[in-house]
């Protein structure tokens, strides 16, 4: 098992970053460390563990426990080694008679206020207090403690006012004040690592107590976002995972990668037997640096949820009951159906959808299935509906379809633009890293219709919030460039040396036109011109400027234009090619970057190479022994259109729920209903499965080997920590399906026995992956593509000396208003987004205790808009657009501007996507989720559509009892 | 006719406001033209309210005056009276002092800048404004001035560190959170001569490149807050503070901030946290406040008396100031004498008197007339001295050598009825109540300390070595002086007055 790639011991204090080195002597050993390193850390680096309780290397030194005292020759007293920095020539002693006595004295005090129930304590064997009592040789507690925090009743039998009952309000961890040693590690982790400031110390002196918010609050009532950083930081059983309380301590751990958002956090899956005991963020994980969010750390029980389907099922008609069958029967049934369809309707009549949640290896196989087995290019992926404009826009301007930086880069940013993204909810670990930088003085510009948490939250305040009207991104981004160009704030050196000067001049002429000025666009965008000008000046001249964006940029009819505009902005200001700058798409799903890299798009083979390109096809034709179609295949919307027209009849959909996630649900349902064979490969009977004929049980990320590629192009290993409950990893299922179809064709079968072989094939065929092997990932932990001969250790920062395409390319960004317009019938603009506790369509998170935070989708509406419609907070309302209508509860808030309403799409019984329209990005067909004209009115129940939908879903999910 | 009635809080507590009202009313009744000046205190608290009238022979003192005495005093023409004390300057208490820092205190109208100037005020600043930054720092170093808050750190070295630190903003923070029991020098100077503190802070600002100052003033001092606030406004309107100090082009401005009642906020790093609006918990050092202080910027944190002594050093020169004192304790120290004492008050004198001279001669022994049993020097964290140690000369090193501390120079006298075990318990209890709760030795240790003293009181002899061990842990293990110095009163009580700790005195019976 892969317990350690790099040992993750606790060095007590964070690493110093100075390049100046200092040599000192500790206990007679010489050690050289960077200036600013603590004596504690320096000692740890030569293997001397100075006793400590309040120090841990995820937070700054605090100096409160007084266990780590040392003596320094020539200095007075016994300084704390955690707060004392090294200095040249110091002679430090970490152990002598005086220090031993002091440490015992301190431990004796600690233990005098601690229950001695170690054997039945949930932290038994995993308790630093216990360890330290041993380390300092505490043998006796001589105090007759009268005042304590751990006795419910005092010595005379009365209720002890210092005793506070355990707080079990959070579903994932408990807080037991009786065991608290007030080391403040939790408070500091909440502040420094997570940046939420939910925890504090109440009272002073002996009355100092860790507290969630005010004294009367509990964890759930506080601002706590349940990231678990406090639990991880706690040295005792005070803040403890409930899973540990229930199961016990783990016996081994395996390093793997989170299967939620595109941050791609590394975790240690801590196991006992094949039971997952807890997930602990891995401190050497380069994306997350030891931090996590509530989803990654806690929301994993869906993997063993009773809703999970573990046996293959088939049916002839979607109105039939499901019938559980053997894998062999399911494969034979599917193969016969798909072959039959192709024979009857032609080679182009079937296709696949790859999953952004499965591994690179699995996505690669699914697109290979359509290209090498179905012999067409009908493959698409959910990136179609999220970041396809990123691929297009950055490809056109820079020459690559991915973000330019690693996440570490944010530590060097001075001005950060966040546009169309809500990192604290969608990419929480990145948000924490960003907030850490902001607290150190970087400036923030938020461009978003909603007042997202980053605009103002504890110790964070955006310098500028530009609350634009949904759909006007291009106008706002262009106005920023207009200010920079017309006020001469651009980085001319950079543009001359790194970009195409002629194209720049063309662009400058275009953007300098008065119609792009903030004053001219203010009426349209709703953004005050003065504020926009100030933001532009700050970004241009405020130092390292970094842009982070999300689906609020891409999911528009002009999504690709906005991405180009963002690229222009970065080039104009010279913010490309070094740490602290760049254009950074925050990718939504764990492997959406990877699924795009793996050739999931109908026009591109792996590595973003067009299918028209003969040389590229030749590589794969040689590898696969087939002839590849040189015409791009169908995109998801085209597949659905073709299905409705009757020319597209069969679909293999792996790990994606297009019925819930794709826009205009009614159209998606009609398309699916028109097909003869829909094969859904998933963990659960998802919404799409309502229209499926074959259900192939999927495996979770815990059950298979592979790799995920996160938003920073980082290829992280996914490791099998338990056997697949359904019997097979998803890559094996796809291989079985391919082989079932290939059977009897005379073509060779697929014979992969491990995903590493698939990666070897990817490396062999795809230049940007040429240097990637599982062996390299074992030694390096992770690697960022391009990884090849030129960059054998990968590429953290892109476009350092030149753009991938050569010269950076400025492209005109003409604003064209969306056709989706408000009017008398639909006067409000609906925009959609995410919430922290839920993920995507909610298939996973709805099957965890995370529902406690968000049990239904609600509609955020401004008080003015609510008032004129007679809507009160919590009322059931009807939300209607040209496409359809649904009902949900209203939440009245001024987070949204008047005229704008907002909801999430995590719950299928709301089905926000029945409202969204079929307008899409001009270049990539990415749906315009973010702008829909709607009306809101009071309602007294579910809409007719919801009732019909639920009836259909219920009928469709019936499963015949297993045959005897 | 000019009459002085102190506005000092101690005088007010003894009825000075009533006396002032009575004087105004009586003068009006008699149709006399009386100018009433509310001055600071002269420091003779047993004589307060001490009323002075201006005469051609100098200021004549009467005290302690009660409102009921006022009519009589007018009737007698403020001449011979039972309360008449003679010329203030001739009083023995005043005559023997060396008043440098407190030279103007009680003499001038605290809020009259003209009065201040007339008594030498602003001449130190005027001189400093003509000096280079480094020369100002050198002058302070040369004077030998050490931090009067208690730590005794050389002021010049602290200023040098701040002066040489590179930063876009630096600060001067005056620690006026005078929370030690038995101390009142900070309050007296702020109420009696506020401009001297302001002047000292401006000089500190110019020397170090700091342009903003804060006085962190405890909320328990409403009179000092009022006087200081008015004084800052006057200084600003007169061009002493602001964009160009006395027209020099140097910027310095300051404001008065009020604490919230925590003793530990007198510790410089918790003070800075509190000033920043955070919980008043101690910060680990390093980083030193001189490099990363208020809002992370280089900051001079000096006690009121340290800063208020700066003007006289610049007015009279470092050599003049340095000439006073003993060993490495240079200059004068304002002793604050309190407790069970005949003559309590403020007495400024060069370092070097013995403790016995202070207690027996200056203070005149106890108020009760009983023998002096113990003297606690340096506030609630200071050691108790028995008579056998009264030969100790008043100086930083001399007191440290005797396992004691000068601290803020508060001297509290106890007669032979004092129970030193109770005093030791009080020290632990004080620490428990005032602990910020950050470090373990102080947070838990103080509570266990109270419990352990209680065990001793009940006759548990095994608790005595435990108390000794606990004191060793607290002394070397605590993060700041609160936990670190609490062992001083406890251990000195235990060491010098073992009879009070004798296991179960009554148990034997």
Structural description of this entry:
The complex is a heterodimer of chains A (964) and B (509). With 964 residues, chain A is α/β, with parallel strands linked by helices. In chain A, a hairpin with a 4-residue loop joins strand 28 and strand 29. In chain A, helix 9 crosses helix 26 (755-765) and helix 13 runs parallel beside helix 19. The model of chain A is unreliable at 1-6 (pLDDT under 50). In chain B, a hairpin with a 5-residue loop joins strand 12 and strand 13. Chain B has helices at residues 9-13, 16-30, 70-75, 92-95, 113-118, 123-129, 133-143, 155-164, 185-192, 194-208, 222-237, 268-275, 304-316, 318-322, 355-362, 396-401, 420-434, 440-443, 445-457, 463-477, 481-485, 487-496, and strands spanning 2-4, 35-37, 51-55, 58-62, 84-87, 171-176, 212-217, 253-258, 299-303, 325-326, 329-330, 332-339, 345-350, 372-377, 384-386, 410-415. The model of chain B has no long low-confidence stretch (mean pLDDT 95). Chain B starts with a strand and ends in a 13-residue tail after the last helix. In chain B, helix 7 packs antiparallel against helix 8 (155-164) and helix 17 (420-434) runs antiparallel to helix 22. Chain B is globular and about 75 Å long. Chain B is 40% helix and 15% strand. Chain B has 22 helices and 16 strands. In chain B, strands 2-1-3-4-5 form a five-stranded mixed β-sheet, with helices on one face. In chain B, strands 13-12-16-14-15 form a five-stranded mixed β-sheet. Chain B has a four-stranded parallel β-sheet with strand order 8-7-6-9, with helices on both faces. Chain A binds chain B through residues 61-66, 69, 77-78, 80, 82-85, 98, 101-102, 105-106, 108-110, 112-113, 142-147, 181-182, 184, 200-201, 203-208, and chain B through 262, 264, 279-281, 284-286, 432-448, 451-452, 455, 462, 466, 469-470, 472-473, 476-479.
